[in-house]
Amino acid sequence: MTLQKSLLVHLLSLFSFTGFVALFLIKNKVTILPCPTSSAWSYIIYLLIPLLLALLSIWLIKKIPTDDSLEIDGNDIVPVEGNLIPAYIGMFVISLSLPGMSIESFMIMLLLLAIWLNIGSVSYFNPFLSIIGYRFYAVRSVNKKSITLITAKKDLKQASKLENLIRVNNYTFFWSEK
Amino acid sequence: MKDGSSAIFFGDSDSSLKTISEMFEFPKIEDCQEREFQIDYALGTDEWFFISLNEDERKEMIDGYLLVASSSADYNKVTPNQYNELLTFYLIREKDKVRDVIFNRIFDKFYIKSKTFIGRGISGPKIKTETNFVEFNHSVDAFWDGVKNKLYFKKYSTIKPLFPSIDKYYRSATKEEIESFLENDFFLVSAAFNKSKLGERALHNIAIILDSKEIDFSDVDVRKSYITYANEFKAFDVSIENGQFKVEKARDLTKILSVLQERLYVAPITKEKRVASSTSPIG
Lengths: 178, 283
What we know:
The complex is a heterodimer. Chain A has helices at 3-27, 39-61, 81-97, 103-120, 127-131, and strands at 68-79, 135-141, 146-151, 161-169, 172-175. Chain A has one domain. Chain A has a five-stranded mixed β-barrel. Chain A is α+β, with helices and mostly antiparallel strands. Chain A starts with a helix and ends with a strand. Chain B folds into two domains: 15-165, no CATH class; 175-275, no CATH class. Helices cover 26% and strands 24% of the residues of chain B. In chain B, the strands form four sheets. In chain B, strands 1-2-8-7-4-3 form a six-stranded mixed sheet. Chain B has a three-stranded mixed sheet with strand order 9-11-10, covered by helices on one side. In chain B, β12 and β13 form a beta hairpin. In chain B, α6 runs parallel beside α8 (250-260). Chain B starts with 14 loop residues before the first helix and ends in an 8-residue tail after the last strand. The A-B interface holds A 1, 65-71, 141-143, 145, 147, 161-162, 165, 167, 170, 173 and B 11-14, 67, 69-74, 76-77, 79.
């Protein structure tokens, strides 16, 4: 992986991590707007940021060349949000249980971020992509290897070959139907 | 890779792929340049050996390489810590749904852990150290022609690790066979003789001699006839002592194998003494 690609993958993981930060800030009633009555607006901004960054992620992913293809083994395509979201929720729970704004919280958040960035080099998941309409599928190839496919196509059940895939990492690919 | 797996170096849109394609070119082999594989034939500079593969052989030897083109998502990108694990660099070309492949063998010596160069800098000579890189000499060591279903190559020993099942086209004597062959008292083997120095060709010739079972090494008359035959070609310099062939170096054994395979001959018209590069019968 080139340095540029590696930075991009880390950036994508960083964007997906902003959800935890948003929740942590809301839980600790941290506001960014000066007027105390407008705390609700601060929270809306916190929630909007991960969504906007999810849109930016898609824009960045689409900048990666469409070099790859995949032959699918007998339509073996399974949605995986059900498997991935619990792991993500686990991280949310940690965010919510962190003690207020303190050095400890900051350190734990940094540690979570480091783990998240590291996981991001092999497995990429951003639940905010699901909110903006993208789906995650586990697809099995003719070589009996499984990859995660991110696509805007809903209810993908049948495909024998996918062309023009974008490689996010070695196990995650993005596909847009042309 | 040395472990039999494949990984992707350059994707279709990678700018380096264009540069590579310009250097690492698919050969155009005319019918007159190809020759069915025969180990003891010395190829001309523009000639290529070929072996024709049936469907099963193609599946076994070539399809593993072609899968990358049809389902690249199954393969990882090469990482820098794998550079010393590379066995071959190959390039696939697809035309009318037929795929051709060219292979460049990467020998262990091509991997360079660290090398320092003195080059020109802006303000004079400059020292530069490069680490973890692989020399790419862009020679085509093997070429799979998907239309003709033929695998072309120049040197068998170079491509053998790339196609493990190619063995059936060219059997080499095993370690045990070499041991038992040299244990024969027709040979006087020096203690300093290093069997591991024997080349592919010598190993193959030993296998041919053993498989043919034409030479009865225990027959005194047979032994005498080979010694007499070798003595007729003194200039070939086969070392003989007390009716035994003396083996001190790999080169000695190569010469003895030529005698055992009756490669030495006198040209019938010019009467020149020669060594045949092939033992294939013509009739």
